[in-house]
Specification:
Shape: globular
Distance between the termini: 27 Å
Order of helices and strands: EHEEEHEHEEEEH
Radius of gyration: 15 Å
Length: 135
């Protein structure tokens, strides 16, 4: 059965530093789709973050590349299997050089936190109670 995937392409300032950051979060780099201009970060079977040097990223768009440290171009959100996994991933991101983004959001049935990666891209991590999702 076909499984649709998402490939999130992100411009980065320092490819090696970004690769190190994401591997410290527990993700792997797929060498088949990585070189000196890009790194394929495998987040799950259906989610891949493509880290592209800014000059390489610019070959895919005619638009100005946003500076994610001062401009919000998007919010990326990953699900987590528990509240503890939310905290674990965000804490690892901060320990790896990312920064906390905003305050934890606790709505009982849903809990989330966020971090900015080394280039300022905001990653939200959210857990939702499966019973609330089904109802």
């Amino acid at each position: 059965m076909y499984q649709q995937m998402i490939f999130v392409n992100l411009p980065v300032n320092d490819l090696d530093a970004s690769k190190k950051f994401f591997t410290e979060l527990g993700y792997s780099i797929d060498p088949r789709f990585s070189d000196d201009k890009a790194a394929s970060v495998v987040i799950s079977d259906s989610i891949v973050a493509m880290l592209l040097t800014k000059p390489f990223y610019a070959t895919f768009t005619k638009k100005e590349i946003a500076d994610a440290t001062t401009t919000s171009e998007m919010l990326l959100c990953l699900s987590a299997e528990s509240r503890e996994k939310v905290d674990e991933l965000v804490d690892r991101a901060i320990a790896a050089g990312g920064t906390a983004s905003g305050q934890a959001q606790d709505h009982g049935f849903m809990y989330g936190r966020a971090f900015d990666d080394l280039d300022g891209h905001t990653w939200e991590v959210v857990w939702m109670d499966p019973a609330a999702v089904q109802g």
